[in-house]
Amino acid sequence: MTAPLKIQHLRQFLLAADHGSFRLAAEGTHRSQAAVSAAMQDLEQQLGAPLFEAGKRAQLTPLGQAVAPLLRELLATHDRVLDAARQLGMGHTGPVSLAVMPSLADEWLPRLLERYARSHPDIRIRAVDESSQDVHRLVLNGEVQVGVAGQVPRTAEVAFTPVARDAFGLVCRKGHPLARRRGAVPWSSLASERLIGNATFDTLRNRQLGSGIDDPAMVVSNRASLLASVVSGLGVTVLPVLARPAADSGLAFVPLCEPTVERIVGVLTRKEETLLPSVAAMHALALRSLTQFTRRKGADLV
């Protein structure tokens, strides 16, 4: 089997050919001139004929002139592939895909993506918002690499790192009678309200929290449209603490009790599968960012 060409030899050959000097080839590769001369002899033996004219130092033979562009192309390919591999290894390049439950997609997700893109400008990112069940499915099937969702029945193939203990509350206009009460209100107080459902209602159904939860009068899946509907007086809704509206939205967030309903929110990856460095960076940032967001929103950390 023919021995492979050594990259260092190719680099020395091209330096000698370009500068007409073995000395400059030696300096350019941090080797002695004797070592470069020996390397050129090895390269000539591999190729089967002289590359340099005898007694004329670094003057190329016709073979040397013919192979120079081929070896230059080979060296350029090697350097390009090596650089691409190193960029992947250092997490500077590589695809990143993540799925996030809808209640975090509107406020938390854009901030996460902005922070990640700022430190990883060459990474291609794909982000989708799906229900918690679908986030788990996408991670399990390998369709996304990182998920952020509420906890569902665990599977052996998915690793779930809990971050937040997320309770639920009523979202209504600040002038609403329930907003003027001090402290939490019971779920039963929603019986006479016109409830606008949203994606988080899937978590609340079949818990004996009232017919308005199990079968709301209206369903609006987009969070911005949902809050706008409440502001306009179409009804009230229920959201987790992590999705509570901003203080300047004109809306109130009233904790719900009797019973206290909570969900555990965390970050998911496939278990026992080493992440690409670029994905590992996203996973670490998602954990940090979600922890900070949980504190800012007033939810409890697990």
From TrEMBL:
Origin, by domain of life?
Bacteria
- Which residues are in coiled coils? none
> Is Membrane set as a keyword in this record?
no
Q: Where are the transmembrane segments?
A: none
* Pfam families in the cross-refs: HTH_1 (PF00126), LysR_substrate (PF03466)
Stored InterPro entries: HTH-type_LysR_regulators, LysR_HTH_N, LysR_subst-bd, WH-like_DNA-bd_sf, WH_DNA-bd_sf
Residues annotated as domain HTH lysR-type: 5-61
Task: Pull one GO CC term from this UniProt entry.
Answer: cytosol
Keyword hit for DNA-binding: yes
Keywords (alphabetical) are:
DNA-binding, Transcription, Transcription regulation
One annotated GO molecular function: DNA binding
- Provide the family line: Belongs to the LysR transcriptional regulatory family.
Entry protein name: HTH-type transcriptional regulator CynR
Question: What is the species listed in this Swiss-Prot or TrEMBL entry?
Answer: Achromobacter deleyi
